[in-house]
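From the shared-data thread, chain only:
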Amino acid sequence: MVEKTSLGESIEDGHGRSLLSVTDVAENYLNCSPRHIRRLVDSGRMPRPIKLGALSRFQRSVIEKWIEDGCPDVRRKKWSAR
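Structure, as tokens:
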């Protein structure tokens, strides 16, 4: 299911979770480039996306919780999206 929101387009997976593309997270949540998002993920400073074949999608709830917690490094600290 594709849903248009004020923060871009989100897709729901089969479990009712709202998924965001790398571009959606970059433009609507962090105001940076998609390439910077990939660098943050690769360096462990951001939660990893879910891989759907060749696509990468972030769970909206995980990104919002991570931002709410002050964007901590996820590999260095014991950060949990739950």
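The beta strands are 2-5, 8-12, 18-21, 50-52, 55-59.
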